[in-house]
Amino acid sequence: MARAGVVLTTFLFNAPFLSAPVERIPHKKVKQGIRIAKSFVTAGVATVLHKGGGSGDEAFAALARWVPNVLVNPADPISAEYVGYFDHRKKMEDIGAGAVGRLATRHSVKDLLLGIGKPGGCEPLHLFPSAVLTVNRGPSPDFKSAHGIHQWWRPDLALECRAYSYA
To answer: How many C-alpha atoms does 146 have within 13 Å on its Cβ side?
Structure first.
């Protein structure tokens, strides 16, 4: 709908992010290294497959007008990668690799490879160009607590909220 110019107010609680669980790695520099390497690989594959421009990029830019409210818990292995996904985009800009980061942001290697030979390829449905990311930093003793919707009803939430915009 966003591509058609209809932007709906959206709240996504614990939405799945299909990716390797890099966010679960305790060492910050290791996580950053993996994400930087992954961005260069993704951008390289997109370039080789000639996915660095065209209608897919226009669709991604049109989708950027939609800014969903994404609510996640870093202890939830299903949705925690949104935290690293958005933080990494800023990190790529900071190290001078913004162009690589922007190209990698529009693609996933899996979807690029699955789209070979298909008109239009495959779209990575879990990659949001823009979002308001709300992270629940409160304690979550188990998976059920971290992924459950009930965590968002607690009166003692410890939340971090940050807006990310694709430019």
So the answer is: 15
- The mean pLDDT of 7-14, rounded to a whole number, is 93
Angle (nearest 5°) at CA 165 between 101 and 32: 35
CA 132, chain centre distance (Å): 11
User: Residue 158 to residues 16, 75, 140: CA-CA distances in angstroms?
Assistant: 21, 13, 11
Three-state DSSP at 100 gives helix
89-103: per-residue pLDDT in tens?
889 989 998 888 888
Amino acid at 14: N
DSSP 118-133: STT----TT--SSEEE
* Between 65 and 134, residue with greater pLDDT: 134
pLDDT at 117: 59
Expressed in angstroms, the distance from the first to the final Cα of the chain is 20
Rounded Cα distance, 65 and 128, in Å: 10
List of residues 6+ apart from 86 with CB closer than 8 A: 131, 133, 162, 164
- Its pTM stands at 0.79
Buried b (16+ CB within 10 A) or exposed e, 45-80: bbeeeebeeeebbebbeebbebbbebbbbbbbbbbb
The domain locations on the chain are 2-164
